[in-house]
Amino acid sequence: MIYFMLLETEEDRKKFQEIYEDNYLKMYHVARAMGQNQTDAENEVHNSFLSLAENFTKYSHFYFI
């Protein structure tokens, strides 16, 4: 995943991957339900995960594994 390049540690990569796998489809379906076409929905989800990866150290403690 491109997001992994933005994460500093293997632990962060594992946490991020779990968050990604748990939430990608949910986020995609929400974007589609809001009326976005497939491409726009995929782009919005990608941008959301990109932002999370860029700021992962700030937000990773909110996700309890």
Quote the beta fraction: under 5%
For the record, give the distance between the C-alpha atoms at the N and C termini, rounded to a whole number. 20 Å
Query: Which percent range fits the helix content?
Result: 55-70%
What kind of sheet is the major sheet? none
Q: Strand pairing plus helix content: what structural class?
A: mainly alpha
Mean pLDDT: 92
- Regions with pLDDT < 50 over 5+ consecutive residues? none
Strands, total number: 0
> What is the succession of H and E elements?
HHH
Taken from the alpha-carbon principal axes, the silhouette is elongated
**Assembly type of the shown chains?**
single chain
What does this molecule look like?
- The longest helix has 24 residues, at 10-33.
- The chain is mostly helical and 65 residues long.
- Helices cover 69% and strands 0% of the residues.
- It starts with 9 loop residues before the first helix and ends in a 6-residue tail after the last helix.
- It has helices at residues 10-33, 38-54, 56-59.
- The model has no long low-confidence stretch (mean pLDDT 92).
Set down the secondary structure blueprint:
Blueprint (H helix, E strand, L loop, with lengths): L9 H24 L4 H17 L1 H4 L6
Summarize the structure.
The chain is 69% helix and 0% strand. By secondary structure, it is mostly helical.
Structural key phrases:
65 residues
